[in-house]
């Protein structure tokens, strides 16, 4: 088989090979652990290996003779309208543990499906009906026409915006649902979205610097950087996972799904008299039972103790205290640590020990919460008040 192992084709071949490997590894991970994000990331990685294939094979000499040339021409390797929605649904499944693919979601793939039909019609016309290169008489790969490349770029922009909105929703719900939101690692999600943005920016720059998509030109460097970015996304996605402890839809005890707190709390207002009653109930639960000492406390547990739904608790906290649930609980924890300091416990125990006793689950979370509520670090607070 023809394959010229030169510096360019060989370098892209390394990423191509690793892309196939990680695509299989992610698929196996998805099957073994029933992990939906792994399925989507596996498909994304596979599509990325196809994306770089024309250039890897082109530098290896496939555009110079048949049947290799026809393979590159008639197989739509670059699925520019399929990659962006795949990335978006990866985000959706990553952030929302209740996410299920619905029939309406198939519309996201309609443009990609139409392009596949277009590619098939070209193949049938040239190879089956006319048996001559009618569509390809100019000798240029249709995957690289400017209009198609531009459509792929626009699609990437739109789906990046949707992914960012999905991430924002996830963060809001997490902070309004659980008391240990600060300890959840958002770093991988942030790095992933930055890499996604990097793909977008680099692709946009390349449109400006080298708009002749039908020519090989200087595109090797673009495909090399693209390969590095998709390899990073695939490798990091395989090694990392977001601790998605909440969902965009809450499941109540009787398994009926209701609106999450962040979607409903702004749409209704609690009456002032009712608000004060509920604030007193929640405050009593905090003071007497010290429920905040539970490091994995969630808004659902409080709603069960007060025999109501989490929507009501979220409304009261948001409206009555102008806080999200995470900040509200951490405020009680910080006050409890300060009481221990006033009792001199910081002289016989470490600050981390005090923090763990009141419900914090890490030193970094404690330090962030303490500074947020007192405008000082724990050590500075001690120096100013107890020395």
TrEMBL record:
Gene3D superfamilies per record: Homeodomain-like (1.10.10.60)
Keywords: DNA-binding, Membrane, Transcription, Transcription regulation, Transmembrane, Transmembrane helix
SMART domains assigned to the protein according to its UniProt record, in alphabetical order: HTH_ARAC
Transmembrane domains' residue ranges: 12-28, 40-59, 71-91, 112-130, 150-167, 188-208, 220-239
Example GO molecular function: sequence-specific DNA binding
Xref: InterPro entries: Homeodomain-like_sf, HTH_AraC, HTH_AraC-typ_CS
Signal peptide region: none
Keyword match ATP-binding: no
HTH araC/xylS-type domain ranges (all copies): 282-384
PROSITE patterns: HTH_ARAC_FAMILY_1 (PS00041), HTH_ARAC_FAMILY_2 (PS01124)
Protein's UniProt name: AraC-like DNA-binding protein
